[in-house]
Amino acid sequence: MATVLFAGLWLAYGGMLALCMGMERHFKQVWQRLPAPLLRRGLRVGGWLALGLSLVASVAAWGWAMGPVGWFGMLSLAGFGLVLLLPYQPRLAAWLPLASAPLLALIGLLT
């Protein structure tokens, strides 16, 4: 169950980050260039897909009774973390999902 919860949080953060990077302003803040229109669209679609998968992970962990409630909590936590990181460490905010993927895999192996 812990792996599913961490995966849901990881997907929520990745989805929020992708939606954030789908905006020209935030993409330029992190990468110092404007995104191509196709990349912007892909980031937005990928962000919504990741948020949907995060909902699936929450429902798998808690069931339909509490899953959506936990999902909103994870969205809030992921969004708050992104809001805190983006102004001060934008590159860290962008690379955090990739850096945390091995940790998630390790947690999955241990449980």
UniProtKB/TrEMBL annotation:
Membrane-spanning intervals of the chain: 6-24, 45-63, 69-86, 93-110
InterPro entries xrefs: DUF3325 (IPR021762)
Keywords, alphabetical: Membrane, Transmembrane, Transmembrane helix
A Pfam family it matches: DUF3325
Source superkingdom: Bacteria
Name under which the protein is recorded: DUF3325 domain-containing protein
